[in-house]
Design a protein that fits this description.
Two copies of one chain form a homodimer.
Chain A: E1 2-3, E2 15-18, H1 26-32, E3 35-36, E4 40-42, E5 57-59, E6 83-87, E7 90-91, E8 98-107, E9 112-120, E10 126-135, E11 142-151, E12 156-165, E13 176-184, E14 188-195, E15 201-212, E16 215-217, E17 220-226, E18 229-238, E19 243-254, H2 258-261, H3 267-305, E20 308-311, H4 314-330, H5 357-369, H6 371-383, H7 385-394, E21 418-421, E22 428-430, H8 433-436, H9 440-455, H10 458-479, E23 481-483, E24 488-490, H11 508-531, H12 533-539, H13 542-554, H14 582-585, H15 599-602, H16 613-620, H17 633-646, H18 655-664, H19 668-683, H20 696-710, E25 713-716, E26 719-722, E27 730-739, E28 742-749, E29 752-757, E30 763-767, E31 770-774, E32 777-781, H21 784-788
Parallel strand pairs in A: 26-30
Antiparallel strand pairs in A: 1-2, 2-8, 3-4, 4-5, 6-7, 6-12, 8-9, 9-10, 10-11, 11-19, 12-18, 13-14, 14-15, 15-16, 15-19, 17-18, 20-27, 21-22, 23-24, 25-26, 27-28, 28-29, 29-32, 30-31
Organism (chains A, B): Planococcus dechangensis
GO molecular function, one term (chains A, B): hydrolase activity
Family (chains A, B): Belongs to the glycosyl hydrolase 65 family.
């Protein structure tokens, strides 16, 4: 059973805890209690092994394509967390014997995992165990573990096998060639392995230190090796109340490490340096290393971008910290060649690939909270232009057609082409997303715009941003199809955000976003022609500009229907059959509709998997197109009501958008409900949802729901709006956003809003239709009525 | 706890049983209770999973080299034996709840594995389980399983997940590219995978059939898929005393199947045909398929070459059946391109590679019991000439230098070049066997001679045998090194059978066997020049013959020392330090000497790993060189006493040879003790010895100890000798051997021997120094004294 919080004292609302062990529900705590630092992600598997465990260690950017018929993915690196423990010869396992006072918890404040309990072996010996673990935020290569054991009653013979195990696979797929293993100074185990296609060297080091009753001991240790494994076997006799501490410090380095890219790389040097690093850590030990790690989290994370909520529900504060915790753990701030996968570094799901999830659901947090990190993520996409250009060319288009799934920037499209077999017909199902889910290119252009608009970072624009927007605009211009009957450009045969519908024509989201992409390119081109003629020349935009204008003018943009202001999701959606969706709207598991209808039937029903047209409203609202009459307040409300009723939220990307939209249109209770559902995707009581990894996009969505939704922050066309609409049970919300490089501290209640511009540069913003300027600090009383009204 | 026998009634002495379950000792029953038919070997893992299990299915000949830095090995094929069973939601596992009346047993008569017990779940529901399984001896591709469940007390909700799992690896090494999966007719699961280097297609099919109280039921079944997996999920409600039967029939076919080699191979056709085959099996069901399988074992195995012992120790009869059982299960009688690995098809150990184990320890059984199978094994070596010639050439020699480890015949040498790292120095240890353990070539020449001598199979000789002997002789002639000081040819820098000694000069075994090989080639050449001049011409032996003669005459052959008749094992052995070996001679585990001495120190001690010089005596005794005064009866005794005292039997290849030699020289009690130790290598109480697989050579050694040792059968230079020396506690021994194509039935007690030539052709043989001729049947009284004396 997962509990939201068990906080006491200073750690109140910082703890995510599991108070009962179940060998049938290991995936939950493994994923939601993940430890990570952007360089690596380590699932919080238990030290002692269980059949259903998924031990994963992923190192960002180390993609490998194991076989010609596989797609590239993050390989599961060698494991150091497993300890094989025996008590008087009996295997230690919580499935055996009796366990009391069990608690496994992630302390998000310190980013430390602990697990403690009393365990009585089948033979009746009782021991007290406490395990601690962290992945250092200060030393990116370090995994530190500590085990404390005390025998409560008897003399006990304890044996521990611990080392490095490189027999790990990705569900049976082995990515590594076996390399050398060594044991230096009789203690420091080193294991090398190399990915079989991308030829990335991994160097793993590990060392143990044992203390008995505070004194270092040199236990009887056998060294042993097997294929792809090396380990130590310790035998220790414990008398009652002896206190044994086993510390295990491990490092992992790879030849992709960016600190190595300068200079000439040599495996021998990496081996020597990484071993030297571990020897340094060994001198310090767990506790001292932890103190440095803890301070790094305090300083770089909680001191920098905490969000504080006063709510009647403690889970709300916890969920926002959960969001910030995971957003931090997943962010590869150390390397602009790396992105964030759909499951971040927390599971094999989606193979470590980046989707539009990053730009639309995760990046906004970084743009507003850590612009440097946001720039790194966008630079990853800039490096991806090579792959995007290749994809465009392969498909007969111009410019940059971004891959639906992206791995190493130059890989291009890495979406698997074939999915599971239709188990009835025996035919393999084709995965169409890599071919026709094309809105990703416009989504990235939107992200560039959003970044530029909020940060004002000209340097990035000149180095990367303009090129990304021009190249995606070129793609769209070449992609549009002339429809002679309608005398319009159409975009046929696509998948929109609603993946229930394949091979549709004129998906409103896709068409409008393509239009935005073209208009954005023209806007930037105008800017260059006025301010940077040398860049205008460099890009050679003359012909393209004319092309964009002609295409944009004649591109078909689905309009709100006269009768009810509903924008058709695509050419046929509004003509499809309607069924009673109540059963599926109330589902506790996703995809229940598939129990009654197959994919083909669903294609013919007015049912939507996830925010599609509504997402368009949400995005356009942040652009210079927001004044367009198509996206009027009335249309927004009409479309929300129409599509929310037809949306099953069968994607983790959906709920947060609907929460924000519900908040925007004043549906406060629904907004809060959708927010809580967003939190529950990973933190909720369903023990199976996170088995394949956490949902990076919905974790970004938790933060977005609060800041864009309840706080009503919206940034468009150089203008800042803040229209708070706190949920009824929230008394106060405090957080910081960066606007044009300056942190703004916001502190809002139902009654008033306090805004502070730390750097003291004046900022203009709009609240409740009134424009204010904050110089250093400003308090604005909020008309309760107004705080509920729409923008 | 493994018991030798628990036989009752007609299955007395046919059962190998385990009467208590231990999750810490799974490897024992998995390996010693292996099911196999020469085409495949299936470890007898338990249906429900355990952490320490090793699920293995090996298909003979399907070698694959997964990565450039690996050696080729038999890949672990997809698994069908695992069933994930839940009782009222609780995982079924013998580690949980309570188990009563447990017994797991291999019925060797019917080659069927069964397992039964009553299990009470942690929640207190008691069920009776019975599992049965066989690998068909009639349908080589078929694995049949049956599970019977009865709820003894309560209503129970049973769920079973079962299918095909291709996530299997060889200790982390994945050999397969993922292929297609299909489910035909909603029931027949098909999974295809292909080895990543050798490009061998594997087609797995599986189907389930359920019966409740005798009636076929169509249970609620979900079909599910994951990466490299496909399975069915059954949910069944059992009332008290409902009797559920789940039958699971599976097939495996590969593109290496010899029945496919004719005609054009197509994967689609193999898929269709294999599915058709399974549909046929499905119509028959487990019981009918079992009956056909049982009869095949009765007819082809027990009716053909049973060995019957009347002994005070029931285990002796059981051990001989154990030997015949495994020799049958490992023999790839269906394909002469395939050999027998050191662990046969029972584990990952030695990677499925063939060593001299086959020719010296396994082949004799087949030559005397199933000459057709023996010919197939030798033909495998004949096909291996290509690889052996390549190895000779690579090493600068002529003729055929057989690989120390052989996989697919044309692969050549496949011994790993690098072994585990010396964990202290960090250096990788080089495995020298592939370079300098060269006696294998002479061992194979010996095997050809033994086969020819016993079977008189001229056709094989003309097609294969002569060429193998000539080519190996050419190798030796080119390999000898002229020593100018001694005016002799030497063989320096080798490893003999005693692998404790590396890089030695003039290993007596190697030199004498090389000499035998040269002399054998000359003998066959003489024969051809007289009887088959056309073959003499074809082989063009003129120059080689002269070379062989010159080399053989001047090859240094270590002589018995004048003072004690001991032949020096190599140039330095007799000068090495002597230590008290009592501690290691009495070891219960192998390699205990390594706890006190390292490899370099052992190299300097008069200690021998395994039969070396004594093996030479045993082999020469079966050749035309046996009259050589070096191998006198006195020398044999002297060398036995000298080397037996210094041999630690740290190889499973050692004990049987010493048992035979002890029997030969009249050391009856020691002979019997060594025989029992030979049996215990796999059948004994040490639960860890067989984890990596059974020991194919020592299993051949069990039979050899009885027939060559206790029955005193020896066949040399066209002459048959039979000098029985039954152990004191054996009253009677009956068995059949083939001599020149005719079966001879032998039935011996301490008092007399009955010999019957079934085909009625007269056979001359020698017993106790007297020559007899048996026409149809003959009874010879044995002087008890004589039966104890030596030849």
């Amino acid at each position: 059973m997962m509990n939201y919080s068990l906080g006491k004292g200073s750690y109140k609302d910082w703890l995510l805890a599991e108070t009962a062990f179940s060998a049938d529900a290991l995936g939950k705590s493994e994923a939601v209690m993940l430890l990570g630092n952007g360089y690596m992600g380590l699932r919080s598997d238990n030290e002692e092994p269980y059949l259903a465990e998924r031990r994963n260690l992923f190192i960002n950017g180390t993609f490998n394509k194991a076989e010609a018929n596989e797609v590239t993915e993050l390989p599961n690196a060698a494991n150091v967390t497993r300890l094989d423990i025996r008590v008087d010869g009996e295997r230690f396992s919580l499935e055996l014997g009796e366990t009391n006072d069990y608690i496994k918890q992630l302390n998000m404040k310190d980013a430390e995992l602990t697990r403690s309990f009393d365990w009585t072996s089948p033979k009746g010996k009782t021991l007290r165990f406490r395990f601690s673990r962290f992945v250092s935020f200060d030393e990116l290569h370090l995994i530190a573990m500590k085990m404390e054991v005390e025998s409560l009653s008897h003399d006990v013979a304890l044996s521990i096998d611990s080392g490095i195990n490189a027999q790990m696979t990705n569900s049976g797929v082995q990515h590594f060639k076996e390399g050398e293993r060594r044991i230096a100074d009789g203690r420091f185990i080193q294991l090398v392995q190399t990915t079989n296609e991308s030829a990335i060297d991994f160097v793993h080091n590990t060392v143990h230190a044992l203390k008995l009753n505070g004194e270092k001991i040199t236990a009887q240790a056998d060294k042993d090796m097997a294929r792809r494994k090396a380990w130590m076997s310790y035998d220790i006799e414990l008398r009652p109340h002896d206190h044994l501490v086993v510390e295990k410090l491990s490092t992992v380095h790879t030849s992709k490490d960016s600190d190595l890219n300068s200079g000439t790389y040599s495996l021998e040097q990496l081996r020597a340096e990484s071993l030297g690093q571990l020897k340094g850590h060994d001198v310090l030990g767990y506790d001292a290393l932890f103190e440095v790690h803890r301070r790094a989290w305090q300083q770089k994370v909680w001191g920098a971008y905490n969000v504080e909520v006063e709510s009647s529900e403690a889970v709300d504060q916890l969920a926002l910290r959960f969001s910030l915790y995971h957003l931090t753990a997943m962010m590869p701030a150390h390397d602009e060649q790396m992105g964030i996968g759909a499951k971040a570094l927390s599971g094999e799901g989606y193979k470590g690939h980046s989707f539009w999830d990053t730009e639309i659901f995760i990046l906004p947090f970084f743009i507003l909270s850590n612009p440097q990190a946001a720039k790194s993520l966008l630079t990853y996409r800039y490096h991806g232009l090579a792959g995007a250009r290749k994809k465009a060319q392969d498909n007969g288009y111009r410019g940059a057609m971004y891959p639906w799934e992206m791995a190493w920037p130059t890989d291009g499209e890495v979406t698997p082409v074939w999915g599971d077999i239709d188990i009835v017909t025996g035919e393999q199902t084709k995965i169409w997303s890599g071919f026709i889910e094309q809105h990703i290119s416009a989504d990235i252009a939107f992200a560039v715009y959003q970044y530029e608009n909020i940060t004002g970072d000209r340097q990035f624009m000149e180095r990367c941003g303009y090129e990304m927007v021009f190249e995606t605009a070129k793609f769209w211009a070449s992609r549009l199809e002339w429809n002679d009957a309608h005398r319009q450009y159409h975009i046929n045969h696509v998948i929109g955000p609603d993946e229930y519908k394949e091979h549709i024509n004129n998906n409103a989201f896709t068409n409008h976003m393509a239009y935005f992409n073209l208009k954005l390119a023209m806007r930037y081109a105008d800017k260059l022609s006025q301010e940077h003629t040398e860049l205008w020349e460099t890009f050679g935009l003359e012909a393209d500009y004319a092309d964009w204008r002609e295409k944009a003018e004649r591109l078909y943009l689905p309009e709100p229907r006269a009768e009810d202001l509903v924008i058709p999701q695509d050419d046929t959606y509004l003509q499809l059959t309607e069924i009673d969706l109540a059963k599926y709207k109330n589902q506790t598991k996703v995809r229940t509709i598939y129990r009654d209808y197959n994919a083909e039937q669903i294609n013919g029903i007015q049912v939507t998997k996830q925010a599609d047209t509504l997402l368009l409203f949400y995005l356009i609202d942040q652009t210079f197109l927001r004044g367009d009459r198509r996206f009027s307040e009335a249309a927004k409300k009409a479309n929300f009501r129409y599509y929310e009723a037809r949306t099953l939220h069968d994607s983790s990307l959906s709920l947060a958008t609907h929460a924000i939209m519900a908040s925007d249109i004043g549906e406060r209770e629904l907004a809060y409900k959708l927010f809580r559902q967003t939190c529950d995707i990973d933190m909720g009581p369903d023990m199976k949802t996170s088995d394949e990894g956490i949902h990076a996009a919905s974790i970004g969505g938790i933060w977005k729901s609060a800041v864009f939704g309840f706080a009503g922050v919206r940034l468009a066309d150089g203008k800042l709006r803040i229209n708070p609409r706190l949920p009824k049970n929230w008394q106060r919300l405090r957080f910081t956003v960066y606007w044009q490089g300056q942190p703004l501290q916001l502190d809002m209640t139902h009654e008033s809003m306090d805004i502070e511009a730390s750097a003291g540069r004046p900022v203009e913003f709009e609240t409740g239709g009134t424009v204010y300027t904050v110089d250093r600090r400003l308090n604005i009383p909020l008309n309760h009525q107004q705080s509920l009204s729409s923008t």
